[in-house]
Write a structure and sequence with these properties.
single chain; about 110 residues; mainly alpha; 2 domains; about 90% helix; Relaxasome subunit MobC
């Protein structure tokens, strides 16, 4: 009787060990799968950041350089903080102007086509 209990105990330990190993394998496969997805997400994020940075340079830095105001990265953050405060205080105005520009762009595109 004692031998049967011990045997069942050892079998249970073996089963637990096998399940833990299987769990680790599945977890590793999940990490590999996520790792394969991440590079594409990083590329897409990098592209968005580059595009937004280029627009920032086009519309903001150009005007600052005309007024001989150099813009270092730390200064850019402060400037964006100022813009953020302005946007929060004038959100509806900014959104209305933005929508006007979108409509003007649409109508000018339709006129050309």
């Amino acid at each position: 009787m004692r031998f049967d209990s011990w045997k069942r105990y050892e079998d249970a330990l073996d089963k637990i060990d096998k399940l833990e190993k299987r769990k680790k394998v599945l977890k590793d496969h999940s990490k590999i799968s996520n790792f394969k997805k991440e590079p594409e997400e990083r590329r897409q994020r990098t592209r968005r950041l580059i595009e937004k940075g280029a627009l920032f340079e086009k519309y903001i830095e150009q005007h600052l350089e005309e007024n001989q105001l150099p813009l270092e990265p730390k200064d850019a953050e402060l400037l964006l903080d100022v813009f953020s405060s302005f946007f929060k205080a004038n959100q509806q105005f900014v959104i209305n102007k933005w929508n006007e520009r979108i409509e003007n762009k649409k109508s000018s595109t339709l006129d050309e086509g």
